[in-house]
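Batch 3, record 17
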Amino acid sequence: MEGLRFDDIGLPRAAEALRAEVRAFLAEHLPATALPDSDFNHGHDAKFSAALGQRGFIGMTWPKQYGGGERSFFERYVVTEELLAAGAPVSAHWIADRQSGPLLLRYGTDAQRAKYLPAITRGECYFSIGMSEPDSGSDLASVRTSAKAVDGGYVVNGTKVWTTDAHRNHFIIALVRTETVADNRHAGLSQLIIDLHGTGVSVRPIRNLAGDEDFNEVVFTDCFVPAEQVVGKPGNGWEQVTSELSYERSGPERFLSAFRVLVEFVRAVGPTPTDHQAAVIGRLAAHLMTLRQMSISVAGMLQAGTSPAIEAALVKALGNDFEKELPEVVRLAAPHLADDHRFRATLAQTLLHMPSFTLRGGTREILRGVIARGLGLR
Amino acid sequence: MDTSQLVLDTAERMFGDHCDKTLLDRAEQGHFPAALWGIVAENGLPQLATAAGGGTLADAFRLLRVAGRFAVPLPLAEALIANHLMAGTNCGTFDGRVTLGIADSHSAEGGEVNVELATVPWARACERVCYVIGDPLEVILLDVADCDLRTHANIAGEARDAVRFLGVPTRCGAPPAVTVTRVFEWMALSRAALMSGALERVLALSLDYAKTRKQFGRQIGAFQAIQHNLALLAGQVAAALRATDAAIAALDSPRFAVQVAVAKSRVGEAAGSASEIAHQTHGAMGFTHEHQLHHFTRRLLAWRDEYGRESYWQQRIGRQIAQGGADALWDFVVGR
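Prediction for the assembled complex:
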């Protein structure tokens, strides 16, 4: 059945061999933090990203011509999962590496690729996603940020929200309306690369419930964007944003966000768990290992050049539910510990960020709709 | 197309042609489907995982997944593993109806053994019961005619008989490099494979029902609430298939014990939630005996309990992780 095919794909030896290299890299470069966090949004560290770039761990699958490594999706997989499992601060380059770069490779002009990709692979150029707006969340086609064609480019007006790291990143790829087409709301959308520090762009932090100021509101006021900043064909934006989703939805960051909580639970419980604690650990490990196998299977499909949108949605839907369930079940099985105990502190940090797990990158409800479509129900 | 795929396709056709509701109902009333066994045996399926059968142990588990799709009411898993074991001993494979048990203990004195096996699939209809005991592993073959037999069935109506034997059995010896733990793991994987197939069928039945049943003037599958439930069901099925396939792929690897534990516990969990969603989707129709859904859901509920419930396997994984310590958890996950 379409969407249910997760072929048996083991990581090739070359990819496994990379694991030791990543760990050696981490031993040298991982900054000492009180509480490592496997959430990919956690930790914006330009120095760390630059070191990763230097080591060839960003843009790994891209052509050498643009600074890439021409390595397989499996090799990239090993690097990303090792970074997340260790709780490395990866948020700076994450979006550029995961989806902006691949988007430019697929739809961008030669000039755009030459300009941005090498800088991304060096870990020096960071991108934000410009999709959501105050009135456009899951209903992405309703975006209202407008780009009016003028001599030599566009004038952009509108507001993007929940823009992670817009205040620290360099560019945003904004989904904008370049045209209003009667009876087809998916037509007339375009993607523009916009300098987050340019004229006509203002970035205002939005504090989240955990007290962080990671995401932002980005307001464009008569912001001039040169025509060469359009990604792909004007009007083709809908197809392009949906093509990003297989990359965005199937990776290990969709089920590893709470991983460090499990690590600290195992530490807190020690070598002789109760039956219940052992079952909790075993159950979560079984889920995690199965999700990882499914995710690697999707990496295999990406490697083979297919666009497994349904499978990716399935991995994200299952994975997000898993990373939300994990903290809840270990909380109830944990021994009594003081609030400042490492386990309690890690748990608290994750509990406060957990609401976002099933929102970012497509809500649980949207994903279930995508899966239902794959099942022929809509 | 390779040979094993050919075998699976043949089996799929064979089961599809013969395992209808009438046959399942009769089997669940305790009548052994001898004609079906005859066809299965004629095609050499019980000997698939032997040199003569031309297949591997992995093929046997793939075959069981196909059998699960049709709720095949035969001791097929037992015959496959029994023959695989006996093929490596001085007994050789058994051509007739053979089933399998794992003994916790037996007493042996002189040439005689005294053994009780609690839940042996279709012992009443078989000619031989093969049982294993260890360690070191020993494979022993009993003639059912010499056994005391008490019939019993699980909640799916599958024959699970109690067998008592006191006498001189056929001692087969032991196949090389197999432990009783390994046999138990194979049997656990057999249940994961059967459940995977049944889960595929439960999803297919639910989708079919959601696309044909109409309420409020439209097919119920058009309602978002139903769509979301079915998306959840599909996720459980996909995870179960992946976990089972991963364990099958690990048959010859040192990770096999871990992968079986992952598969049996993960698939067992999927069995429960998938059955629940399938029944909710089918409404009262699926609660009737007349509907075929329960042949699959009741088996899912039974099979998840056989050869170790989810909690058993979860604890096995959990203890191993706890022993290794927190900083080795990730290595455990990636299999390093």
